[in-house]
Every structure is written in C-alpha cells, then in structure tokens.
Design goal:
By secondary structure, this protein is α+β, with helices and mostly antiparallel strands. It contains 3 helices and 4 strands. The N and C termini lie close together (9 Å).
Length: 94
C-alpha cells in the first residue's frame, strides 16, 4: 500500500464493547477516498490509528458489522491492549 497512492489505500474501523460484543466488530470498510475519509474521521475524533496492510486485507473480508474471525483474535487483542492502555475504545486500521 503506497502512502501517496490514494486509490490503493485501504482502511478498516473496528469497535469492541466487551459488555455486549463477543468479539470486535468491523464498523467501517473502505478503500481510496473512502479510506481517506475513515482515517480523517478517526483523526478528528482522536481515535488511534494502527498501520498494518496485512491485517487490513484480512479484515476487509469481514462483512460490515461482522465479528472478526477467531484466527485474528491474537493480533487484534494486542492492538486493543495498546488502545486500552491509552484509554480508548475504538481503532482504525489502515
């Protein structure tokens, strides 16, 4: 994924509420200009952004609103642990 090539940029947003969700859910999926909008919205709301092109490709296969697959639990748990350390509850991956 090239930083200067907007058309190939991808972004995924996830949300996790341990009181109601069995796993993190995909709440936005986009590429190109939509990815730029997801990232801009995350930045405007001070939502942490994690850069991992391989993870975003895997999460892009999850349906909107769907739970992440079990084989991604470990990597997403590591990201969420980082986020919780800085007192946030959502993350955008690009």
């Amino acid at each position: 994924m090239g930083e200067n090539n907007t058309s190939s940029k991808k972004a995924i947003a996830m949300e996790y509420n341990p009181e109601k969700d069995q796993a993190p859910r995909v709440t936005a999926i986009g590429k190109g200009l939509v990815a730029d909008q997801i990232i801009a919205l995350a930045r405007s709301r001070n939502i942490p952004i994690h850069h991992d092109p391989y993870l975003v490709d895997s999460l892009a296969e999850v349906d909107f609103g769907g739970y992440i697959p079990p084989d991604l639990y470990t990597v997403v748990a590591e990201i969420l642990a980082f986020i919780y350390r800085i007192n946030q509850k959502k993350v955008t991956i690009r």
